Structure formats: structure tokens, C-alpha cells
Amino acid sequence: MSIETHDAIVIGAGFSGLAILHHLREIGLDTLVLDAQDGVGGTWLANRYPGVRTDSEYSYYSFSFSKEVRDEWSWSQRYPAGREVLSYLNFVADRLDLRRDIRLNTRVRAARYDEVDNTWTVEIEGGAPVVAKYLISGMGVLSQPIFPDIAGIDTFAGEKYHTAYWPRDGVDLAGKRVGLIGLGASGIQIVPEIAPLVDEFVVFQRTPNFVVETTNDAVTAEDMAWLRDNYDAIYEKAANHPFGVAMEPARFSALEVSDEQRRSIFESKWNEGGFHFANECFNDLATNHAASELASEFIRSKIREIVKDPATADLLSPKTYSFNGKRVPTGHGYYHAFNLDHVRLVDTASTPITAITPTGVRVGDTEYELDVLIFATGFDAMTGTLTNIDIVGRDGITLRDRWNRDGLKSNLGIGVHGFPNFFMSLGPQTPYSNLVVPIQLGAQWLQRALRWARDNDVDVFEATQESEDWWAGETERTGKATVMYTEGKKAKAWFLGDNVPGKPEAFLVYMGGGQVYQQHCRELEESGYEAMRAPSRVAEPVV
Ligand code: NAP
């Protein structure tokens, strides 16, 4: 029986998988995309909880590479809802005729490199294996959900949901007593959306967040016409911004202006909302603790302004870490929701959750009775999807064991030594960014790399050990120069791996700036991919 063979196999049919399929097809590579879900869309298909929407604005949260898609797609809101992003990705799949090379309901169990044939064999749950020269992960960075390790979690007799496994048909929460554990970007989006629907809402908070509120204006036909005329410039702006947003980086320090000027700048960027605050106020909110603390105090003052009950406002105000210590979430009426009489904030930092019981959640000795319990408890970020399946490289070692043994290592988050012809879209140590930018630029980089390999008869790309050591060092060096390190540690941020009990702490993302990262990628390309060409092994003589 002959085995199905392709040039490239991509795992995941989200933003990454779609972009890579399109770009590899353009250079004539026979590419197959496999995805466990029953539709394209990746994270936007999985995360269908109430309130899910982009935290990046529509104008730079989309691909720029297809004129057809740009001309024919129209966004309806400044921060598109999850279902609109999902429609966009379905539109992309249709418009670029991608579906004929996407196989859905296909869960990859393992992938093994064969040194003799220089191929990857991909094992599929309940199906025949497929083989390809190139294996590419587009499995997503925040796609391996985690449940908290709380005693009795399986005993809850009511309805129980994780934000990343939200039922397709939605959940009727009207008139119910609902509890929520988890207040990262996901939980923060849920709160204002479901608060008006439910009878009682108990929000369990362990660590408060600095939420930047925003408004969600309609996108008009004129806005779309303007965007179409300016798309390349906007995309370039985002690509040149450290965090991949189409904004002008701020030029001066929060410490070099008067109190009055600072307040006025904070105020104006707060009014613009969302990522404008973190990116456009001052140039040192991510690098200087005193500056980050000034931003923290401004947001605390906003919380006190919005939330009527002073004790609740105080509880919602982070005090154990400062601004940027966690990925800054965008709010859509988050703080206002706590003014509703039936919304109750329970502090589980001072008195922890002791158990989940059949009827609710116990905090200390107090039991909160609930009909529905929602977990917005996050993900095993950046590495979780890659270590959850067996990706087996040279000498039979899995990626999981390689990283357990040697620490997190990669060249630019693209390749790993010992894993020839394996590439990652948004692998660990890629930029902390609006992700559409590194996804698109990464797909274009890969297109050029694989075309070059074909044109130059190069059969194997494999990151050198030196390149991995260099990049691990760069990632650590640049990361440690930010408050994301000092404050992220205090806040147990996912980008340090600190949100997963037992996960070794490491910078899972590159904090040195998306534009710097892209420069490194260009240099790698200009060098003839030198650092991706580990010396090939010479076969041992047979005695
Ligand atoms: P997250 O930021 O990791 O937040 C998880 C939450 O669960 C935290 O509040 C955490 O509390 C809580 N938690 C975890 N284990 C707990 C336990 N044992 N007991 C009590 N509380 C517990 O996860 P997320 O909100 O899903 O967001 C992850 C990332 O996904 C975001 O930072 C963002 O990058 C991305 N995201 C993006 C969007 C968007 O752009 N639209 C939307 C959603 C998510 P502690 O803080 O105390 O640990």
C-alpha cells in the first residue's frame, strides 16, 4: 500500500496555516494542512465564549498579502467580534481557494523524522499516516487550555465550561447563578457581556489586571475605503512597531514631563482606549519600573472613578505588580460591570479557593452556590501545543524531552536543532506582538527559504546549536531589560511560563521588538540561511 506523500504538511488551519498554505502553494509546493477541529479558524473557532473579540484594531488585524481579500472584505467594528474574525478566515479560505488542501477533523498524534529518507511521517488519530519533506507547526500559541488544579473540580454537578472549549450553540445563562474563575484577557471580555444576563454573578479574582477600557465604534464604508487605499502603509507601520500595532511609538519618557503633562497624555490615550494607552503614551512603560508604576497609578485612579463601591475598586486595583507585568487586556465595560448589584467580586488572593463542590465554589469556609461555573484559566502558552504531541526529531528525541533536557532553545522561534526541516509559525521566542504581523511575515520568510532551498539543491534546514544558544541569550537579555520580567514574575505571567505549575520559567516570547526580530530574520536569509544549516552528519562507517 503506498503512503500518501506531500512536499509540506502544516498542522493547524488558523491564521498561520492559511497564510503558509497560500505562500507555499505560490512556489508550487504540494502542501496539506491538517486540523483537529471541524472548521478553519484555529483559535477563533475554539474560543467562542461570550464577548470574545480582538484586542487589536481591525485595520491591522488582517492579512495584507492578498489584494482580493483586502478589496472584498469589510470589517464592521473597530474591535471585531470573534465570529467576525472567524468569518474573515473562512472568507480567506474560500477566496484563496485553500480548502481543497485542508483536511479537517484530523488530529495529529505524532510526527517522526526519518533520517534516512529525510522525511516526516505524521501520525493521525484513527487515520493513515501522511509523509512530507517539510513539517510546519501552525498550532497556535495560546491553544492548549489549562484547568486549575483545585480540589473537587470534577465534582461540580452544574454546567462547567472553559473559555477555549465553549459550546458551538452557545450557553443559555439567563436567570442563572454563574461563577467565573480567571480574569486574564478572556475572563475580562466575558464579564461585561454576561453580567446583564445572569441572575447572580460571582467573579473569583486571584490577581487583578490593569484593564484599558475602550469603545467599539462601527467601521463605516468610508473607513474601509480609506483602509484599502492605505493598507500597505498601515501594514508597514505595524511591521515596524515593536509590538506589531499600527501606531507611532512614543518618543519620550514618562519621567521627563510634568505631573500635569503626564496626566493629560495618559488621559488622552486612555480615551483612545485599548493598546493606544500602552503604546502611545510614553516610551518607557515597558522598560522602566517607575514609569510603569506611574501608568499603574493612573489606571488605579480610573478604576476608583468608574467603580462606585470603594472596597470593590480597591480589590480590582493591582498592587502586587505594575503595568505591563501581564499582557494588558482591552476592556469593553469591564469595570462598569462591577456596579451592577448582582455582580460580586470575591478576593481569592487573601482567602483562596479551597474546593469546588458539587454545588459551587468554596472560598475559605464560605460556599458560593452556582448553576454554572466558567473557567477562563488560560493556556500552556507558546510551547503547550508543541509538547502535547510527540514531535520526534533525530535520535528519537521529542521536542518535549529536548526542551526539558536543554532548556527552551530555538533559532528565532523558527527551527530547532535536531529537528531537520521542521518549522514553527509563532514558535516560542518569537515576538510578543499583535500576532498577525509575525504570522504573515513568517509565512513569506518560509516561502523564500523553501524556494531558495529548491533553487540551491539544499535538502535539509536545521538550526545550529550555536544559533539556538545565541537566540536564547538574546531572548533572555532583551526580556530581562523589560518590566515584563520583573513585574511578570510577580504577576505569574504566561509569557514567562509562570502560570503553569511546574513549568520551568523562561522567556517564551521575544521582547526585543518585532522590527528587530524581522531584521534578524532578514540577516539569516541574506547569509544563505547559514544558521539553519547544521553540518549534516556523516554516516558511521559500517565495519
Ligand atoms: P490568562 O491571561 O493566563 O489568565 C488566566 C486567569 O486564570 C488568571 O486570572 C489566573 O489568575 C486565573 N487562574 C489560573 N489558575 C487559577 C487557579 N488555580 N485559581 C484561581 N485562578 C486561576 O488567560 P487568558 O485570559 O485566556 O488569556 C491568555 C492570553 O490569550 C492573553 O494574555 C492574550 O494574549 C490572549 N487572548 C487574547 C484575546 C484577544 O486579543 N482578544 C482574548 C483572550 C485571550 P492569576 O493571574 O492569579 O494566575
Helix content estimate: 25-40%
Global geometry: globular
CATH class term of the domain at 4-40 and 98-144 and 381-461: Alpha Beta
Percent strand: 15-25%
Provide the CATH topology of the domain at 4-40 and 98-144 and 381-461: FAD/NAD(P)-binding domain
Report mean pLDDT, rounded to a whole number. 96
CATH architecture classification of the domain at 4-40 and 98-144 and 381-461: 3-Layer(bba) Sandwich
Family: Belongs to the FAD-binding monooxygenase family.
GO molecular function: oxidoreductase activity, acting on paired donors, with incorporation or reduction of molecular oxygen, NAD(P)H as one donor, and incorporation of one atom of oxygen
Protein name: NAD(P)/FAD-dependent oxidoreductase
Pfam family, one: Pyr_redox_3
Search tags:
543 residues; alpha/beta; FAD/NAD(P)-binding domain; 8-stranded mixed sheet; 17 helices; 34% helix; 16% strand; disordered C terminus; binds NADP nicotinamide-adenine-dinucleotide phosphate
Structure notes:
- The structure is a single chain.
- This protein has 543 residues and is of the alpha/beta class.
- Helices cover 34% and strands 16% of the residues.
- Helix 1 runs parallel beside helix 14 (436-455) and helix 9 (289-306) packs antiparallel against helix 10.
- Residues 538-543 have low confidence and may be disordered.
- It is globular and about 70 Å long.
- Among the domains are: 4-40 and 98-144 and 381-461, 3-Layer(bba) Sandwich (FAD/NAD(P)-binding domain), CATH 3.50.50.60; 212-375, no CATH class.
- The strands form 5 sheets. Strands 1, 2, 3, 4, 5, 6, 17 and 18 form an 8-stranded mixed beta sheet that branches. It has a 5-stranded parallel beta sheet with strand order 7-16-8-9-12. Strands 13-14-15 form a 3-stranded antiparallel beta sheet, with no helix packed on it.
- The structure holds NADP nicotinamide-adenine-dinucleotide phosphate.
